[in-house]
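User: Please predict the structure of the protein below. I'd like the answer in structure-token form so I can feed it into my own downstream comparison script.

Assistant: Understood. Taking the following sequence of 345 residues as input:
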Amino acid sequence: MMRTFRLIDLAEQIGGTLRGNADLAISSIAPLDKATSEQITFISNAKFRDKLSQSQAGAIIVNAEDMPFCHAQQNIIVVANPYLAYALLAQYMDSTPKAAHNIHPSAVIAEDVKLGNNVSIGANAVIESGVELGDNVVIGAGCFIGKNSTLGAGTQLWANVSVYHNVKIGSHCLIQSSAVIGSDGFGYANDKGQWIKIPQTGGVIIGDRVEIGACTCIDRGALDPTVIEDNVIIDNLCQIAHNVHIGFGTAIAGGVIMAGSLKVGRFCQIGGASVINGHMEICDGAIITGMGMVMRPITEKGIYSSGIPLQKNKAWRKTAALVMNIDDMNKRLKALEKNRENTTT
């Protein structure tokens, strides 16, 4: 049977002011134009105000400015920030199952592993010697935790996550399926055409409340560790190379590639599919839009972009042809400027 919530309880959960039926049973959250009488919705963009009075939702979360656009019979909860209220409500009503329950008999756990209270470990997981798992840690099916690694209280790993040896993961982290933490950094020396591997011994340190997306790879450091500070969120399919340091509260969208020894500041936002050079720094608060190619340090807070926006193929061909001729055009321009200087003198 589906769980329901009283509307007054939801209002109290998000600190909102309720107008309407306090005892209305709400089953879930839905979009503004699709919500039914048993669901709650929200509006976070003023351009959708004209849809408020038409919504069939059982209740709507609005701010004070949007409230007049609702009709008198609608149940509403008034808050300062409806989108934040939606996030908090989604957490409160979340029905996502845990990655594991209890300790499955097929899990392979070394004798000296230190288990906190209420730890869950899924089928076929492997936990090696010297590992420490804090209270309420959840390890999904098929995960691997290498020697001497630690996971803080409340951290959850979904299925098939690999955590190599000597990795430290803080509390209340969430790591999605098939992420790899602590794989070797790309370190080699060249001896007359032969690649000589450099063992990567630095490990990885991940702070508290960090979220890491599916299939993302975070390499271990060569000597010092790779560091991900508290409250960082990293999307799917990202590559974080060895000895990268990512500051508090930074958000990284899908498909981002970071080269080694890069230092990213606090509260940065990095758009999807961006590529960032290594051995340099990005300052606090920098915003890099999608498909950014960052080849030099960023020293001033601001919004940075690169790449060519999508065009129809015919227009793009003309743009590409112009780009290919830039060097020739530059030489001709310099020749004209030099000729003009000679003429005027």
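That's the full token string. The mean pLDDT is 96.
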